[in-house]
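## Example record

The block below lists the input lines for one assembly entry, exactly as stored, with component labels intact.
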Amino acid sequence: MKKKLLISDIAKQLNISITTVSFILNGKAKEKRISDSLTARVLKLVEEVNYKPNQLAQSLRTGKTKTIGLMVEDISNTFFANIARLIEEKAYKAGYKIIYCSTEDDTAKTRDLISMFRDKHVDGYIITPPPGVEEDIKELIAEGLPVVLLDRTLPGLPTNFVGVDNRMGSYSATEHLIGQGYKKIALVTTESGQSQMLQRLEGYEQAMAHHQLAPKLLKIPFRVTTEDMIPKIMAFLDDLRQRDDLDAVLFATNYLALRGLEAIDKLELRVPADVGVVGFDDHDIFRLYKPSVTAVAQPTEAIADQVINMMLDQLDTDDRKQATTTQTAVLPTSLIVRNSTTRR
Amino acid sequence: MKKKLLISDIAKQLNISITTVSFILNGKAKEKRISDSLTARVLKLVEEVNYKPNQLAQSLRTGKTKTIGLMVEDISNTFFANIARLIEEKAYKAGYKIIYCSTEDDTAKTRDLISMFRDKHVDGYIITPPPGVEEDIKELIAEGLPVVLLDRTLPGLPTNFVGVDNRMGSYSATEHLIGQGYKKIALVTTESGQSQMLQRLEGYEQAMAHHQLAPKLLKIPFRVTTEDMIPKIMAFLDDLRQRDDLDAVLFATNYLALRGLEAIDKLELRVPADVGVVGFDDHDIFRLYKPSVTAVAQPTEAIADQVINMMLDQLDTDDRKQATTTQTAVLPTSLIVRNSTTRR
DNA sequence: TCGGTATGCTAAAATGATTTAGCATACCTG
DNA sequence: CAGGTATGCTAAATCATTTTAGCATACCGA
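Predicted structure tokens for the full assembly:
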């Protein structure tokens, strides 16, 4: 097994000091007045023998690991998987690697993960925060570590944030339904206090209020399994239906919409004739489903762009003026109108 | 900002040497004959002040980073996203973090990524290899680094591998179609030479041959965009249809099946009356689609289990006897019969 | 009383880089 | 020709651990 090359090997071969080699490799040749000819010789040799500095040693000395921690609610959810893919790509281009994990929106697990990431000295944190981690995040910020929150914020936490205009998204989705002649519109959401979910609720309620329509809510508790979800939704819809009080549903997340479609199917309701359907967050399935499903789409690529830009921004900035400015990007959603809301 | 605690702080406070603290923290107290009382005092203080060793320094000294590199073709593909989620979970339980990236099945990119992972000194490699990285992987193995290939193998590479019985999967899918009375069965696959794709092709061809039926193939070139894929599939199916030579299709991957369903939809063919449809690799959509789509399901959880077990196995083993034994797990697929192949 | 060994701990090297402080030498200026 | 400055480089400290080699002291048996 070939021995790994050290910086001292390079220095020895050229009969110069380690310091000089280090300066040259770190682009400080000019600044440190190393002659051009020596610089060239060093770079040539380094190239020839394919010397690569030991990143662990570098990290120990500099405190930088060129690694970003990415914590999403669930990496297997298409929305997050797509974001993760884009973030990864852009991060690699900037020389950063990504360590990821899924929080499952579990406070204790997330706190643990944050602490593990710290132990590993990641340079920056991208987080979709569960409730109850405010203090941990504040600590990160207090220590001058770059943090970008994604998808949802936490109250009272002045931090860089990237998300969409959820209120507007569900407002316009509701307006769209109303415009199509639907009046008895229900919202199926989760019980969570996550900011983005509250905003989606707010948008729906505002649109309904604006038209003097009565809101109808189903809030699914958080840790309900997929199987239990469908009967719950069925019961809710069926009940409204019995009272002739339902002609459309807005689902507040893509997985709720998937379960919802199954529920609607089992109740043998026709879409869009019996009920109109809109999902928040687009999904491959919505294009393909018959009838295709109208959805509030989030601009995945733009989100990922903003996130990584904010992160790189902070990573580039000198640590001093870190906490001074916080950026916030609230991106617009777009309503993709498909057949599930088109009455004929 | 509170100063980070060092091992020397612990030593100083108790008036003992750093060495002793280190031994105790690394569970070598007994072995090194440190008295129980001192051991207890050290552990107590460590607990009280919440001292945590600097992992960078540990890694530099030991050469272990407690990090596993995961390279999949595309982290945003549901199949890989699900696997990634499970692997992450199990890895964390064993104290390992995951760095991931998407190879896009691009040789040059992957070689680059492998080299980056090496620079970062990951302890183990989980890879879905694109063609042309045989040498790089051989090098990893030669250096005694744990490697587990996932989903596909490379010819002439004796390595730990986890995948499914692809040949059997598509064989039985084809048999199923034939059992339902379909005879003019086409296979839509990719042009790639990836082992798993070749096996799926082989299974199909064997089943067809076994019943003296003529195979009909469409091989989609690799870097075709989603939009270009649909017209290609349409043309292929339509052509066969014109010649009255099509009554069922087997799609060799889940994304091909998705595009395929769109194509079938546009051609206004009815499923399963005009064409039966089977997908390789299950997908949420297949349950929900009308009619629901029969699929060859891969046992995601079992795959992830095997992968992480093989990996941890190697990581635990002393480096010496590393390369001696290689494990291979070929898991069975299961055919989930749904409406898309049920003629009435 | 002396050699052997068990006990309980530690000094110092090693891991592989970056960075601070500074040393010669040459050159220039007045 | 003294004194200052620019040039071109380097010795040694530093980052925070782990690990090797070994040092006192006490005790025991012969």
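Chain B has a mean pLDDT of 93. The longest strand of chain B covers residues 67-72.
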